Amino acid sequence: MTIWIGLTGGIGSGKSQAAAEFSFLGVPLLDADAVSRELTGENGKALPLIRKCFGESVFMGAQLNRAVMRQLVFADSSARQDLENMMLPLIMEEIQNRQLLYQQQPYGVIEIPLLQEKKEFQTLVQHVLLIDADESIRINRVMARSNLSESEVRKIIAVQSENSSRYWMADEIILNNGNKDELTHKIGRLNQYYQSCFNG
User: Fold this and answer.
1) 44 annotated as belonging to a binding site for a ligand
2) Average pLDDT by consecutive 10-residue portion of the chain (200 residues)?
3) Is 118 annotated as a binding residue?
4) Domain segments of the chain: what residues?
5) Bridge partners, 6 (sequence order)
6) 41 is in an annotated binding site
7) Contact between 9 and 173 (Cβ < 8 Å)
8) Residue 13 is labelled as binding a ligand
9) Which of 65, 89, 184, 197 is 20 to 30 A from 56 in CA distance terms?
10) Which CATH class is domain 1-28+106-199?
């Protein structure tokens, strides 16, 4: 039986870099956000549902206008809830289908930013790894890689779970205040630990 580890953390914590390190080590990696983007990409399964719920204002022709959609869901909590309720079963189904491809592996990783917020995602994993960093570091990382202002980043952080609630559900925690090399070393050691725990 493959043990699936839910990799989570707030925006800017470095969870995607941690996921990339696991993938480099040959660990099966699934990504809930990537699945969501596929479902809302060209000819995506979610597009007809989004169009029916939100109308043409969030579309540019046949494509979803992600910037408009993002502004809408962060400004309107009911719109955000509607979108999440629409997307969740589609994402769950796709991840479950992909998990079946790795049944012979000792363990795999699923990157799930909303693992704490959406309890349904927790049914996909048997173990939880939290990547965390100081809030000021997280904000600076997000601002450096995007066009978002500090206030916009803080709004995103505000709608995510408090770190304290993530700590309660985590089996392991990596504090990622350092550089990429430090994170690479920590993931390498954790991979050795997981291999010893889950391999047979």
Assistant:
1) no
2) 95 95 98 97 95 95 93 91 94 97 96 91 97 95 92 84 79 96 98 92
3) no
4) 1-28+106-199, 32-101
5) 110, 128
6) no
7) no
8) yes
9) 89
10) alpha beta
